[in-house]
Amino acid sequence: MKYVLVKKMKDNVGNALEHIQPGDDFCWEIDGGTHTAKAKDEVRFAFKIALRDIAAGETVLCYGEPIGTATTAIASGECVHV
């Protein structure tokens, strides 16, 4: 199991705490609950990974703050970068 850092429940991306390969299960803890998903892409240490599907035009949130807008649809488990 790989670990992802998530600070706020409203976040739709998290930061990889280790290198994640496609097919790896990853998890994060928030508000006393543990959540899991499966990686679709390679995600390098400290890169962002989608925690759920993100629609094109939707605000990307990390640590509870907007960090950008999705220019295309992003599936849960995909690397979110640039």
Structure description:
By secondary structure, the chain is mainly β. The chain has strands spanning 2-5, 13-16, 25-30, 33-38, 48-50, 59-62, 65-69, 79-80. The strands form two sheets. The protein has a six-stranded mixed sheet with strand order 4-3-1-2-5-8, with no helix packed on it. The chain has a two-stranded antiparallel ribbon with strand order 6-7. The chain starts with a strand and ends with a strand.
Tell me the structural class.
mainly beta
Beginning-to-end CA distance, first to last residue: 26 Å
Unreliable residue stretches:
none
**Tertiary shape:** globular
- Mean pLDDT comes to 97
DSSP strand count: 8
* Helix coverage percent: under 10%
Order of helices and strands: EEEEEEEE
Tell me the Rg in angstroms: 11 Å
- Strand percentage lies at 35-45%
Q: Treating each run of at least 4 consecutive H or I residues as one helix, how many helices?
A: 0
The strand line-up of the biggest sheet is 4-3-1-2-5-8
Specify the biggest β-sheet.
6 strands, mixed
